[in-house]
Structure formats: C-alpha cells, structure tokens
Specification:
This protein has eight helices and five strands. By secondary structure, it is of the alpha/beta class. Strands 3-2-1-4-5 form a five-stranded mixed β-sheet. It starts with 13 loop residues before the first strand and ends with a helix.
C-alpha cells in the first residue's frame, strides 16, 4: 500500500506524476500530476489510494470525484497534461509521454521542487528535479492519486470518442486492440485519432 515515505525524503513542493494510455492504439496519452498540500485527507480517500490498475472502474471513479473535491477544498492541486496521436506518431510514445508529463506539471500552476514519477525512465528538460520510482503508483500517495486522475480522465475522453465513433467499442476497450476494436477497423476503417506509427495500425494502412 502507498504511504508518504518517498515524499518525506525531500523538502519543498513535491508532486506525484503518472500516465495512462501508452498501450492503446488510439487517442491521447494522458499524464496526471498531484500535489498533496494537506495530508489530513478524508479517510475514504486516503485509505483507498492505490495503483489505478488494481482498482475497479467504480472505485477509481469514486476516488477521482473525491480527489476533485479535495482540490476544490484546497487540500491538493491537480494538473493534467496530454499528447496527441499526431505527437505520438511524430516523436514516439515515450517522448510523447514525457511531453504529457511536462504539461501536467506545468498545469499545476505553481513551481515544484521535486517530481516523483512512476517507472524507471527520467523525462528530459523537466521543469524541476525528478525522482523515478518503480511501481510508484502502489508506493507513493502522490503518484497513486496521479495514476487515478490520469486513468479516469483518459477513460472519460475515450467515452466521448465512442459517442463520436460508435463502431470501435472505445467505451469498453479504452482504445486497446480488442476484438471489437479490430472488427470496427475492418468494417469502418481508421479514424484521425488512431496512432498511425503503431505496428498493428500500420498493417491496416
């Protein structure tokens, strides 16, 4: 379970950062950044923060709402950053993910002293110092919160895309290469939001 032990290793303003959407074939890659300013968060929030992949969709959405409420009360700050399929195709998914992370940090609207980033890859030209943490989304409260923000925000975006393009099952598959997604491509072709540099998508071009 996550705690504040990584945050306690550093002084100043510390944010957690995580991304969602590196694997899907369509849509933006999204990063969330979270600063926990007041650690006296509601128990139903703090006690359930975890790696978003370990939580049910319902639980993630509940925690997302609680995080937004905590932001409205001034207890936390949230930043969201995105990189588009065009940027993914132009720069590759890793560089686009770093772009989304930088944008999320900038969208916090304040200066940061340290960013705790999930994983083991350090973004270049970041606006502050960086500490990468493997499995950080299950070890640091700030990164756990960021992982939930990124995942739920992106899922909501994919639901909107599903309304625009109802033939690919985006509301279920979030853009991953599932059977309904593949069937949709075979029947209706590719859309502008597909990542054309991805190998499975290249096969359909």
């Amino acid at each position: 379970m996550p705690d504040f032990s990584f945050e306690d290793q550093f002084s100043g303003v510390i944010c957690g950062i995580d991304e969602a959407g590196r694997g899907p074939w369509v849509g933006n890659v999204v990063a969330g950044a979270v600063i926990i300013k007041d650690r006296n968060l509601a128990p139903e929030l703090l006690n359930h923060l975890n790696d978003s992949k370990k939580l049910s969709k319902t639980k993630r959405e509940q925690l997302y709402s609680l995080l937004c409420e905590a932001e409205a009360q001034g207890q936390i700050k949230i930043g969201i950053g995105e990189a588009t399929p065009l940027e993914i195709d132009q720069y590759n998914i890793l560089q686009a993910t770093f772009m989304a992370m930088r944008r999320a940090a900038q969208n916090l609207g304040c200066s940061i002293d340290m960013a705790l980033i999930d994983g083991n890859q350090t973004p270049q030209n970041f606006p502050c110092n960086v500490q990468t943490i493997v499995k950080g989304d299950a070890r640091s409260y700030s990164i756990s919160a960021a992982s939930i923000i990124a995942k739920v925000y992106r899922d909501k975006e994919m639901e909107k895309l599903a309304e625009k393009y109802p033939f690919y099952g985006f509301e279920h598959n979030a853009g991953y290469g599932t059977k309904d997604h593949i069937d949709g491509i075979k029947k209706h072709g590719l859309i502008a939001e597909h990542r054309k540099s991805y190998k499975p998508i290249k096969a359909f071009l």
